[in-house]
Amino acid sequence: MTTRGPHRLRALRNRIAASPDAILVLVVLVIFMDMMIYGLLIPVFPQYAPRLGVDEQVIGVVFGIYAAMLLIFSIPMGLLSDRVGRRPLIVVGMLLLALATALFGFSTTFTHLVVARTVQGVSAAATWSAGLALLADTCHPSRLGEKMGIALSAVGVGTILGPVAGGLLFEYAGYMATFLVPAVLVASVGLLVLAVPLRTCRQEGGPVRSPMLPRGAFLPLAACAAAIVAVSGTYGVVDPYLPVYLHAAFSASPAAIDLVFAVLAVAAILAQPAAGRIYDRYGGSRYLIGGGLLLSGAALVAAMQGETLLLTAAAIFALGVALSCALVPAMPILAGIYRGRGSQGAAYGMYNTFFSVGLSAGPFAGAVLAGRWPLPVLFLLQAGVLAVMGVLGWFVVGRLRWR
């Protein structure tokens, strides 16, 4: 009788450790917390300008630091997770995110703000690379597309809820609570990951060596990179410039603009698991990637042709669906390239790097082009890029004979 309780607890821990669904819940929770904190800061950051005595344009630099750190550290963190395991990187990433969130509250100079944002970016590189690799380790390849789609849906949920939580905390709980309450929540998630036993598929017989470019993988990796950069580059153009266009074309209020972006996020939340499920069951990467990029270009054209805000929002919803279809299949394909080499960390470090390249390049390219042409031309040029990438993707994926 006295030993039954510990035996039951041990059995429960073993079931959790062996359950891919339990791992999925943990990874979704980790990604959600990262994106919620990212979004939570959006309505609060403008308060930093008068508080720290800096120009608001300088705050824009702080936004870029996150993407820069993700770009620099994703591959090293993925490789490190191949060597030391996924859980240590996820736990450290969560604790670093909690530290960064608290630092935002205590920042009194611009330097403090830069340090906090840098730590936040490094934490994201650790949690994303190790978390997605953990999913690939524990999920059967036949269901990986759907699992990755569900994990990416956490991005949309965090993107929607983060600014709402930040605005409410700032208004009703005060400045410090806006950061300290989320910091405690994030630290709690990190401790939860530490407490839950995890079993991952590690290679036997010595330390793991993660080849950055497996033999014969150059063209498949280049095709994945092109698809991921095309998708993230589109978000990099849409995020900063669509609000300006909506305000100029329809005199849209901030609340209306927020609703349009919520429509984009909801489209991704719904479409990503569906795209992953379709890929798992039927394959069709040629249609999902190539067709998704082509339809994304068409959706951008439709958005620019919309005569009302409602029609434009409908086109933006279609854009979110099409971008999701193009992005999700690349994730199990990356896993397949590195499977059997103990290198899933390298695979998803690459994914984060490719995504960061597009997300960083989009705003800079937009800034150059927006100074020369009206905003509708900028979006039509991006639509043209998507169309070209879609056609190339259609033929390249067919040549590679992916599912």
From TrEMBL:
Q: Which residues form the Major facilitator superfamily (MFS) profile domain?
A: 23-401
Does rRNA processing show up as a keyword for this record? Answer: no
Q: Where are the transmembrane segments?
A: 21-45, 57-77, 89-108, 114-136, 148-170, 176-196, 217-238, 244-271, 283-303, 309-338, 350-371, 377-397
Where the protein is mainly located, per its record?
membrane
- Entry-linked InterPro entries: MFS, MFS_dom, MFS_trans_sf, MFS_Vesicular_Transporter, Sugar_transporter_CS, Tet-R_TetA/multi-R_MdtG-like
Tell me the keywords, alphabetical order. Answer: Membrane, Transmembrane, Transmembrane helix, Transport
Q: State the superkingdom.
A: Archaea
Protein's recorded name = MFS transporter
